[in-house]
């Protein structure tokens, strides 16, 4: 570099900041004083990168160190809670512009990172890396308690809390605690009512894309991927299959605290609890009769309409409720499940 070019290069720099070794610090780079610039690279032909840069900037709160002052400033927002970057679509705020850009892809549905094996696309390369381990079968992270293995470190950290009972993430609204941040974030949508994912067919909105929306779309496609090994009945999602399996196993994990009656589904228990509370929230628009269950109200409405939607496949007789039809079918099967307490004679009807 010539003297004239060196002067041009140094224009606007304050050389009063020269250190004892005749160098100047500008934007975290060491600049030699003009006239002393060697012809060879000032860093001895070694390019400074994020890996070999000295980490001179330390966080006063947790002690973590950084090679660049800007990175430390971004890190400090973790402790201060500052989130200066706001999403124009949903209003969610972020501590860094990079996080905002990644989030924006939820709304734009941009997924620039693609798996070379199956073609699945991702919003960020950090999501792609653990996905690739699915194809390799590698699970490098192991639980210290049960030796179960996981693809990502975050998965094993969240799993470990099952053993420790730790639930560090609390809901600011109701106080409910969770062992992972993602579970807490999904829960908060119950309070906010946020449902950012919409069905393209019926426009119904959902709070979760990976489970709720995908399960719902199978109603329109008719897809039923999950099959019962016992009776062959098929279901659109695995949760419904698990509930169905209880009809074969007899499992009833939900227990009434009042009378001890057990149920195979939590929804059935909730409906049952109305019996004890005495509440009858379902009212008939015609005669005003009130029912404790919506199913009972539907059965009652046929009194006014005269409709008998349930027909016997054997004799063709029709009934107002499915329960009445089931009781009728006992006659054709020859079953006599009801026994007289006095004489012991069996009957098909109670």
TrEMBL record:
<feature type="domain" description="C2H2-type">
    <location>
        <begin position="226"/>
        <end position="253"/>
    </location>
</feature>
<comment type="function">
    <text>May be involved in transcriptional regulation.</text>
</comment>
<protein>
    <recommendedName>
        <fullName>C2H2-type domain-containing protein</fullName>
    </recommendedName>
</protein>
<dbReference type="Pfam" id="PF00096">
    <property type="entry name" value="zf-C2H2"/>
</dbReference>
<dbReference type="InterPro" id="IPR013087">
    <property type="entry name" value="Znf_C2H2_type"/>
</dbReference>
<keyword id="KW-0677">Repeat</keyword>
<dbReference type="Pfam" id="PF13894">
    <property type="entry name" value="zf-C2H2_4"/>
</dbReference>
<feature type="domain" description="C2H2-type">
    <location>
        <begin position="113"/>
        <end position="140"/>
    </location>
</feature>
<keyword id="KW-0862">Zinc</keyword>
<feature type="domain" description="C2H2-type">
    <location>
        <begin position="57"/>
        <end position="84"/>
    </location>
</feature>
<keyword id="KW-0805">Transcription regulation</keyword>
<keyword id="KW-0863">Zinc-finger</keyword>
<dbReference type="Pfam" id="PF13912">
    <property type="entry name" value="zf-C2H2_6"/>
</dbReference>
<keyword id="KW-0479">Metal-binding</keyword>
<keyword id="KW-0539">Nucleus</keyword>
<dbReference type="GO" id="GO:0000122">
    <property type="term" value="P:negative regulation of transcription by RNA polymerase II"/>
</dbReference>
<feature type="domain" description="C2H2-type">
    <location>
        <begin position="141"/>
        <end position="168"/>
    </location>
</feature>
<feature type="domain" description="C2H2-type">
    <location>
        <begin position="197"/>
        <end position="225"/>
    </location>
</feature>
<feature type="domain" description="C2H2-type">
    <location>
        <begin position="282"/>
        <end position="309"/>
    </location>
</feature>
<dbReference type="InterPro" id="IPR050888">
    <property type="entry name" value="ZnF_C2H2-type_TF"/>
</dbReference>
<feature type="domain" description="C2H2-type">
    <location>
        <begin position="169"/>
        <end position="196"/>
    </location>
</feature>
<dbReference type="GO" id="GO:0003690">
    <property type="term" value="F:double-stranded DNA binding"/>
</dbReference>
<feature type="domain" description="C2H2-type">
    <location>
        <begin position="254"/>
        <end position="281"/>
    </location>
</feature>
<dbReference type="GO" id="GO:0005634">
    <property type="term" value="C:nucleus"/>
</dbReference>
<dbReference type="GO" id="GO:0008270">
    <property type="term" value="F:zinc ion binding"/>
</dbReference>
<feature type="domain" description="C2H2-type">
    <location>
        <begin position="310"/>
        <end position="337"/>
    </location>
</feature>
<dbReference type="InterPro" id="IPR036236">
    <property type="entry name" value="Znf_C2H2_sf"/>
</dbReference>
<dbReference type="GO" id="GO:0045596">
    <property type="term" value="P:negative regulation of cell differentiation"/>
</dbReference>
<keyword id="KW-0804">Transcription</keyword>
<feature type="domain" description="C2H2-type">
    <location>
        <begin position="85"/>
        <end position="112"/>
    </location>
</feature>
<keyword id="KW-0238">DNA-binding</keyword>
<comment type="similarity">
    <text>Belongs to the krueppel C2H2-type zinc-finger protein family.</text>
</comment>
């Amino acid at each position: 570099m010539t003297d004239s070019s060196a002067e041009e290069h140094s224009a606007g720099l304050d050389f009063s900041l020269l250190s004892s070794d005749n160098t100047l610090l500008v934007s975290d780079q060491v600049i030699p004083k003009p006239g002393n610039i060697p012809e060879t690279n000032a860093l001895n032909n070694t390019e400074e990168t994020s890996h070999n840069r000295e980490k001179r900037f330390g966080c006063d709160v947790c002690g973590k160190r950084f090679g660049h002052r800007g990175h430390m400033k971004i890190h400090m927002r973790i402790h201060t809670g500052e989130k200066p970057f706001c999403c124009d679509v949903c209003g969610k705020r972020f501590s860094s512009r990079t996080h905002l850009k990644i989030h924006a892809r939820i709304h734009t549905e941009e997924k620039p990172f693609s798996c070379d094996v199956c073609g699945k696309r991702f919003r960020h390369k950090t999501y792609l890396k653990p996905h690739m381990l699915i194809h390799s079968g590698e699970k490098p992270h192991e639980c210290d308690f049960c030796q179960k293995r996981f693809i990502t470190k975050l998965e094993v950290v969240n799993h470990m809390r099952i053993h420790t009972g730790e639930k560090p993430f609390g809901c600011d609204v109701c106080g409910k605690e969770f062992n992972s941040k993602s579970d807490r974030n999904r829960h908060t949508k119950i309070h906010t009512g946020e449902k950012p994912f919409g069905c393209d067919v019926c426009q119904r909105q959902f709070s979760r894309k990976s489970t709720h929306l995908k399960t719902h779309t199978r109603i329109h496609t008719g897809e039923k991927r999950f099959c019962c090994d016992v009776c062959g009945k098929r279901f659109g999602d695995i949760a419904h299959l698990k509930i169905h399996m209880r009809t074969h196993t007899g499992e009833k994990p939900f227990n009434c605290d009042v009378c001890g009656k057990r149920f195979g589904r939590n929804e059935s228990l909730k409906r049952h609890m109305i019996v004890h509370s005495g509440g009858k929230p379902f009212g008939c628009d015609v005669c005003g009769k009130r029912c404790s269950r919506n199913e009972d109200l539907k059965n009652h409405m046929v009194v006014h309409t005269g409709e008998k939607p349930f027909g016997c496949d054997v004799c063709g007789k029709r009934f107002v409720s499915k329960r009445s039809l089931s009781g009728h079918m006992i006659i054709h099967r020859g079953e006599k499940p009801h026994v007289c307490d006095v004489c012991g004679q069996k009957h098909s009807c109670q």
